[in-house]
Amino acid sequence: MITQSQRVCDKCNGQGKLNVKNSKCNMCAGRGLINEKKEIRIELKRGMKHGEKIIFKGEGNQEIDLDEYGDLIIIIKCKPHNVFTKKNNDLYIKKKIFLTEALCGSKIIINHLDDRELFIEYSGIINPGERFIIKNEGMPKAEPGEFGDL
Description:
Elements: E1 2-8, E2 33-39, E3 53-56, E4 72-75, E5 85-87, E6 90-92, H1 99-104, E7 106-111, E8 117-122
Antiparallel strand pairs: 1-2, 3-4, 5-6, 7-8
């Protein structure tokens, strides 16, 4: 990620003018601040949730009269998936089946997010709105080796 921040001008020390009377600093155009582009590496951790914040201390803008830099705050925004919906670390999928499959049983194939195929085999009658839970096939949790359900 590339970020843009402000820092005090080195040439005029944030005054906006050079030693010569009424001459503006060319580096900062008299504002006392210059824009600086910086590359920042963001490490996304397992189990991060929508709205979670990543804070980089001292990587934000600087005011002329202050010696401290502000913080850069990144807010995680998760895009919705066209097949799966996510609630906490659990994944949900709606699957339409034929009446014959609901009455006589069948095998359902689910293409998971990591391109694996999950096979659900059931026999007997399935009622409308009935749910099946596949343990540990959801999103990873913060603890290594732990997953939500599908």
